[in-house]
Specification:
The complex is a heterodimer of chains A (300) and B (217). With 300 residues, chain A is α/β, with parallel strands linked by helices. Chain A is built from 10 helices and 12 strands. Chain A has a single domain, classed as Rossmann fold, CATH 3.40.50.300. In chain A, a hairpin with a 2-residue loop joins strand 4 and strand 5. In chain A, helix 4 runs parallel beside helix 6. Chain B has one domain: MetI-like (MetI-like fold). In chain B, helix 1 runs antiparallel to helix 6, helix 1 packs parallel to helix 8 and helix 2 packs across helix 4. The longest helix of chain B is centred in the N-terminal third of the chain and has 40 residues. Classes of the chains: A alpha/beta (300), B mainly alpha (217). Bound molecules: adenosine-5'-triphosphate (ATP) and magnesium ion. Chain A: This is Polar amino acid transport system ATP-binding protein.
């Protein structure tokens, strides 16, 4: 693997001093940071490495939002990000969803660079085609739902499968009906999002993401915009998905009980760095850092 | 004031000719203004500087010069090296182009008003740029701007008598010629004034109906 000779920014940088044995895609090594910052056992760091952040830095102006971040997520595992406001949790998900670009470092999904591709043995900024190919594997659910208000629920669920995956309308609607059944909204298919409650909208948004059959699901505080009485329904649905599918989940949440239920690994963030990563039992009951303890005391 | 029905009767044939011209100018001009304005608005958001910049310059220029000058230009200057067209066709195109620079601004505001989350959801679903525009952004943007677009239809109606200057006689043009020949002013001008209201009203009703039809969500 050659390093690009130009373009220092947004380049998969290989800094040997920081990554002593960095064979790309090598799972045991990739677990390095997650395990490096990990405390206790690391049962989440087994199997196929599906996401890998390597030395990722993101800045807004002078503010360093993510600071040389390294971590890996393994296929089918559920990783939850917690941490104080502004610590960079959303930024991680937005980077993965290609809504923003990293300033330095590389992100790989199933071994493929997210925003770079290899051409003639060189890494170059990826074309739209490559990005779209990698992006197919990732779905995202937003805090504010972001359903398309001009489409019925049914069309919200079928538009992308038809336009992007090339499903026939019948196939897409069949798939949508199954998903609506799963999220318990069978009667709502002809309604518009504005006619639904927040909780129902978010369940549709989850179904919409799942309709694309992603391998990875990103969830960014998906219950924060909901009235308290609607939160449980959405969390129950997500628990269901976590326990009954093999989808990899990367979740940002302030619902600590939920995090405890579904997570294989909880990562505590602070100032753009992983402070510690551990199983929920370990992290919630016996955190290593006082900073984590303070944070948990504040939110629990 | 003396109202003479015989004058009205005498004027009527030419009045109807004028009404026809006014309606054609309004419909044709609206069609052009609505579509071309959208083209401008999209071009102004292009990633390509050499598309964005000239379009910005041209629309800014057209918006800030008088319609009258543009009509003269289209009718007398363009045929020197381009196609020559009938007065009515020239008038329709002139009105359409002039107002397209206003509707472009309206569309642009509508597009800017679509929340960023909509773009992000489209990206997260991997929709192509074309599909994102067609299925997500434009339907929401246009729905928001129909009332503002409607205002420009009425404004265009009020500007339509200008095309008489290049010989496309609208209602007012016909009235003035008639008056110049017969020295009868009251009836033709009054009739034309009423006609403007009679045309403007259904036009605004039409826009409102369209607004309601788009308000499905
Ligand atoms: N578009 C932007 N421009 C400038 N600064 C930004 C932008 N987006 C995020 N930031 C900054 O980056 C930092 C990290 O933001 P991020 O949204 O990732 O935090 P977070 O951990 O998700 O916090 P929260 O729990 O409040 O959602 C914040 O300080 C924020 O102000
Ligand atoms: Mg956030």
């Amino acid at each position: 693997m050659s390093t690009p000779d130009n373009n220092p920014a947004d380049t998969p940088s290989k800094t040997p001093s920081k990554t002593p044995s960095n064979t790309p895609g090598n799972a045991p090594d990739a677990a390095r940071t997650a395990v490096g910052t990990a405390t206790g056992d690391t049962p989440w760091a087994t199997g196929e490495e599906i996401i890998r952040f390597q030395d990722v830095t993101k800045r807004y102006g002078r503010q360093v939002v993510l600071d040389d971040l390294c971590f890996s997520v393994y296929a089918g595992k559920h990783v939850t990000l917690i941490g104080p406001s502004g610590s960079g949790k959303t930024t991680i998900l937005r980077l993965l969803m290609t809504l923003i670009k990293a300033d330095e470092g590389s992100i790989r999904v199933e071994g493929d660079y997210l925003t770079h591709e290899e051409r003639n043995g060189k890494l170059v900024p990826a074309g739209e085609r490559h990005i779209r190919e990698v992006r197919k594997k990732i779905g995202m659910v937003f805090q504010q739902f972001n359903l398309f208000p001009n489409m019925t629920v049914m069309r919200n669920l079928t538009e992308a499968p038809v336009r992007v995956l090339g499903l026939s309308r019948d196939e897409a609607e069949q798939r949508a009906r199954e998903l609506l059944e799963m999220v318990d909204l069978t009667e709502m298919s002809a309604k518009y999002p504005s006619q639904l409650s927040g909780g129902q909208q978010q369940r549709v948004a989850i179904a919409r993401a799942l309709a694309m059959r992603p391998r990875i699901l990103l969830l960014d505080e998906v219950t924060s915009a909901l009235d308290p009485e609607l939160v449980a329904g959405v969390l129950d649905l997500l628990r269901d998905i976590a326990h009954h599918t093999d989808i990899t989940m990367l979740t940002v949440t302030h619902e600590m009980n939920f995090a405890r239920d579904i997570s294989d690994c909880v990562m505590m963030f602070d100032h753009g760095k992983i402070l510690e990563a551990a199983t929920p039992e370990k992290l919630f009951n016996d955190p290593e850092h006082t900073r984590t303890r303070e944070f948990l005391n504040a939110v629990l | 004031m003396n109202w003479d029905w015989e004058v009205v009767e005498e004027f009527l044939p030419r009045f109807w000719d004028g009404v026809l011209v006014t309606c054609q100018a309004l419909l044709g001009g609206t069609l052009i203004a609505f579509t071309l304005g959208l083209v401008w608005a999209l071009a102004q958001r292009s990633n390509l500087v050499w598309v964005r910049w000239p379009v910005n310059a041209v629309t800014e220029f057209i918006r800030n010069t008088p319609l009258l000058v543009q009509l003269f230009f289209l009718f007398y200057v363009v045929p020197e090296w381009g196609p020559s067209m009938s007065p009515l066709a020239t008038g329709v195109i002139g009105l359409g182009i002039h107002y397209s620079t206003y509707t472009a601004e309206v569309y642009r505001a509508g597009i800017d008003g679509v929340p960023r989350g909509q773009w992000e959801a489209a990206t997260a679903l991997n929709l192509s740029t074309a599909v994102t525009w067609r299925s997500v952004i434009l339907p929401q943007a246009i729905r928001r701007v129909v009332p503002a677009l409607g205002n420009y239809v009425v404004a265009m109606l009020k500007d339509s008598p200008m095309i008489a200057i290049i010989g496309a006689l609208d209602m007012l043009g016909e009235a003035r010629f008639f008056s110049a020949e017969t020295f009868q002013y009251v009836e033709p001008i009054t009739l034309v004034g009423i006609a403007f209201i009679v045309i403007a009203y259904p036009a605004s009703l039409l826009i409102r109906a369209l607004e309601r039809r788009l308000a499905t969500y």
